[in-house]
């Protein structure tokens, strides 16, 4: 994987109105009503896209089904028909958020890389994905405020996260076998460390930057932080 840092995306506050406008325009195009009737998959995908921004921005309590319905030119009744309830829609949003990141992870083909390069690729991907998807970070933060109540209800999310642990375990075991990683690290703990370092970089950048007077969103700062996190994880595993 190319170790070049991705360009810092616009903040959720900047991108959310654009997503809302896009949803309105799509719904207002000729034939939109016919598409909604004849293409339920597309309708649900549109609802999930808008709901993701709403729940990430306002949380479960603050998000409103009326607003989601208006932004997708559907109705509350249709949303409840597809998802059962507001909580049902929220769980589906969480499921889709985890499905996206795990799907891309599965396409990294880590098994084709030497152990250390595979680890660097996985850490770099995690950093890049979380940086480019602040709504994912906000959804996870909101769900932690609910103490994981809704994630615990979803067997889908549990199943989606099994492959990433297997992938980390395989990379780690190959590294141990090759003598480049030490043999006393739990794969779940390793996954937690990777997630924690990359997560904090997005979740706390505004408060951290304000306290220590650093512009953490500058491309150069992001590139330096990315390289630092990758190197920390690699050195942590070395014998």
What would you say this structure looks like, in words?
The protein is mainly alpha-helical and 239 residues long. It folds into 2 domains: 12-90, Homeodomain-like (Arc Repressor Mutant, subunit A); 96-237, Tetracycline Repressor, domain 2 (Orthogonal Bundle). The protein is built from 14 helices and no strands. Helix 7 (115-132) packs antiparallel against helix 14. The radius of gyration is 20 Å and the shape is globular. Mean pLDDT is 87; it is low at 1-14 and 22-36.
Layout of helices and strands, plus pairs?
Blueprint: H1 12-28, H2 32-38, H3 40-62, H4 65-72, H5 76-83, H6 86-106, H7 115-132, H8 134-145, H9 149-152, H10 155-160, H11 162-178, H12 187-203, H13 205-212, H14 219-237
Indicate the percent of residues in helices.
over 70%
- Specify the overall morphology: globular
Discrete helix count: 14
The CATH class name of the largest domain reads Mainly Alpha
Query: What is the CATH superfamily of the largest domain?
Result: Tetracycline Repressor, domain 2
Strand content: under 5%
* CATH fold-level label of the largest domain: Tetracycline Repressor, domain 2
- The chain-level structural class is mainly alpha
H/E topology pattern: HHHHHHHHHHHHHH
Number of domains: 2
Largest sheet: none
Say how many strands there are.
Answer: 0
How far from one another are the termini?
24 Å
Mean pLDDT: 87
What's the gyration radius in Å? 20 Å
Under the CATH scheme, which architecture of the largest domain would be assigned? Orthogonal Bundle
List keywords for this structure.
HTH-type_TetR-like_transc_reg; 239 residues; Arc Repressor Mutant, subunit A; AcrR family transcriptional regulator; Tetracycline Repressor, domain 2; DNA-binding; HTH_TetR; Tet_transcr_reg_TetR-rel_C_sf; 77% helix; disordered N terminus; mainly alpha; globular
